[in-house]
Design a protein that fits this description.
Order of helices and strands of chain B: EEEHEEHEHHHEHEEEHHH
Helix content of chain B: 25-40%
Radius of gyration of chain A: 21 Å
Shape of chain A: globular
Largest interface: A-B, 49 and 48 residues
Shape of chain B: globular
Bound molecules: adenosine-5'-triphosphate, adenosine-5'-diphosphate, magnesium ion
Structural class of chain A: alpha/beta
Strand content of chain A: 15-25%
Strand order of the largest sheet of chain B: 6-7-8-3-9-10
Strand content of chain B: 15-25%
Strand order of the largest sheet of chain A: 6-7-8-3-9-10
Number of helices of chain B: 9
Radius of gyration of chain B: 19 Å
Largest sheet of chain A: 6 strands, mixed
Number of helices of chain A: 12
Oligomer: heterodimer
Structural class of chain B: alpha/beta
Helix content of chain A: 40-55%
Distance between the termini of chain A: 54 Å
Number of strands of chain A: 10
């Protein structure tokens, strides 16, 4: 359970300059919810998720994790254990000289047995699509951009936290790896974890999330079901967001005169619609 | 023209694995290329090679007839080819956004009035005016990406190589950046090479190049390359949403 009560965050204290990144935000997320966070560049998404694991502390207001305020060093310590956060820039979380050690670090900190750690490392690598174990001896710094991101995700997964937060996890991933990350999000949620992902991919939001929070210039301006967001043209316009690509293309086909439904948000919706139509046709023919 | 001829290369720390294997293609000013391929296929390595940042085992690269090498023609090559890095942090050097924009121009010895004019134009075009005196590393990821692009744009390169330039941008900013690139194409006959994982972004390119395991496996117009759907899936590449929808609607007729 995550609860934000009137949270404001200013970067003033750190940089000596005035920068309000979040302005009086309140919401709560129940255990085992699957929530997306969207908003234009600089709207405050990264700041918000870093407040959840205690990396940043609110300037005003309070953040609670499982009804405990994040304001004592013990509570912050606990938060770091409960919340697994995959950073927007994967390099910023690496510090070991081999991938094996990098991924084992978090589990090691939890005092797990060597056998359990090894198992968790191997499983996490598999889940991000690395099937050969020789990758473990390579340096996490000497990888391609997408490979780095997958290692960052694996090292967070390995800790099996109750809360999993991913800051733009599919950026730069090829189709196969992006699909693997989608499966991770779905499976972690099915395992019972609370999962939050930040993304600019509207298709991903409509397919995976049950709830989406939209930030705009530090304000929480939308909290609801993705389909409701994508039916709100004004809201999308105000926040720099768009409807998912499937909707855009169907819209342009409709403008070209084709009779296609307006409520297909993703390809699965379209496939459903086409199935239904062909069933109806069979029935009328019979 | 940039000519890449039979290029083979390996990283010093990974010599048993060639990251590029016998790659050849041409890239002309005014052309718009897309470079795609799964993670680790060699895209970043290839463009680093074009800038002389990666030693070649075999083959040659020339930029407007200047041979590219670790210590050869560096000035001539960098003056012509602007590279926006995959991680914007790898290209930030200055203490404010304004100075970041001026930095490259100082290196090219652009006169001060011209420099002032170009920096101001970039602040406006890339929507960075509000951050002019801010420190680059204090910007959000997407803001840094916009700055990185602006910092290359001000240098007026003949070839602009962009390593996933919109990956951290929201749809509105993404559309705006792609529109700006289109405008530039018309105005300055700049060559643009766009690296991306998003097939929807490349439908308007002249050619799509696809790398797989260090080899160039496709080079052709998007509507032809994307016809090879099954092979592309094996290379870890998706096809544009538009083509997927056209395929789904194939055989479907509208109700009357
Ligand atoms: N600094 C390095 N040292 C050793 N090997 C490297 C280094 N950087 C990349 N590699 C390896 O070289 C190969 C090609 O990497 P490259 O960065 O060119 O891939 P890419 O196509 O840009 O991938 P991505 O889509 O993930 O950015 C990969 O196998 C990668 O692991
Ligand atoms: N360390 C920092 N110091 C000062 N300002 C910052 C810092 N990090 C981010 N900001 C500013 O705070 C705002 C929100 O940033 P961020 O949460 O990173 O946005 P997002 O993740 O939505 O792109 C932006 O305007 C950004 O420039
Ligand atoms: Mg961010
Ligand atoms: Mg790359």
């Amino acid at each position: 359970m995550i609860r934000f009560k009137n949270v404001t965050f200013d970067y003033t204290a750190l940089s000596g300059r005035d920068q309000r990144a979040l302005d009086n935000i309140s919401f709560s997320i129940r255990p085992n919810e699957l929530v997306a966070i969207a908003g234009s560049a600089g709207s405050g998404k990264t700041t918000l998720v870093q407040l959840i694991n205690g990396l940043l502390r609110p300037s005003l207001g309070t953040v609670e994790l499982d009804s405990e305020m994040l304001d004592t060093s013990q509570a912050l310590e606990k938060a770091l254990r409960k919340v697994g956060l995959v950073f927007q820039f994967p390099e910023s979380q690496f510090f070991e000289d081999t991938i094996g050690k990098e991924i084992a670090f978090g589990p090691g900190n939890r005092g797990w047995s060597d056998a359990k750690i090894r198992k968790s490392v191997d499983l996490s690598l598999k889940r991000v699509g690395f099937n050969k174990s020789d990758i473990k001896d390579r340096s996490p710094f000497q990888l391609s951009g997408g490979e780095k991101r997958r290692i960052a995700i694996a090292s967070t997964l390995a800790m099996q936290t109750d809360i999993l937060i991913l800051d733009e996890p599919t950026v730069g991933l090829d189709r196969r790896s992006a699909t693997a990350v989608e499966e991770i999000i779905v499976n972690e949620h099915a395992r019972g974890a609370l999962v939050i992902f930040v993304t600019h991919d509207m298709d991903l939001i409509v397919r995976l999330a049950r709830r989406v929070l939209v930030l705009n210039a530090g304000n929480l301006v939308f909290d609801g079901v993705p389909r409701q967001l994508f039916n709100d043209a004004q809201m999308l316009d105000d926040t720099g967001l768009e409807v998912p690509p499937t909707m855009q293309i169907l819209e342009s086909l409709r403008l070209g005169g084709r009779k296609l439904p307006a409520n297909c948000f993703c390809l699965d919706d379209l496939a459903c619609f086409l199935d239904q139509r062909s069933n109806e046709e069979i029935i009328t023919r019979e | 023209m940039i000519k890449v001829n039979n290029v083979t290369a390996a990283y010093p720390g990974n010599v048993s694995n060639f990251s590029l294997k016998g790659i050849s293609f041409d890239f002309k000013p005014g052309e718009r290329l897309a470079l795609m391929g799964c993670n680790g296929s060699g895209k970043t390595t290839l463009i680093h090679a074009i800038l002389g940042l990666m030693p070649l085992k075999l083959g040659t690269i020339t930029v407007d007839d200047y041979k590219v090498g670790p210590h050869e023609n560096l000035f001539e090559v960098r003056r012509r080819v602007g590279l926006m890095f995959q991680n914007p942090d790898n290209q930030m050097v200055a203490t404010t956004v304004e100075r970041e924009l001026a930095f490259g121009l100082e290196n090219l010895a652009v006169p001060p009035e011209e420099m002032f004019y170009r920096v101001n134009a970039a602040l406006d075009r890339f929507n960075l005016r509000a951050y002019a005196t801010k420190e680059p590393h204090l910007l959000s990821g997407g803001e840094r990406q916009r700055l990185a692009l602006a910092a290359i744009w001000v240098m007026h390169p003949r070839y602009l190589i962009l390593d996933e330039p919109t990956s951290l941008l929201d749809p509105g900013n993404k559309r705006e950046v792609l529109r700006l690139l289109d405008e530039e194409m018309g105005g300055r006959s700049m060559g643009i090479m766009l690296i991306t994982q998003l097939p929807d972004e490349v439908v308007d390119c002249d050619r799509v190049l696809i790398l797989h395991d260090g080899k160039l496996v496709f080079d052709g117009p998007p509507d032809i390359v994307f016809k090879n759907r099954q092979q592309l899936v094996d290379f870890g590449i998706d096809i544009p949403t538009k083509m997927k929808i056209e395929q789904m609607l194939d055989g479907y007729s509208d109700p009357f």
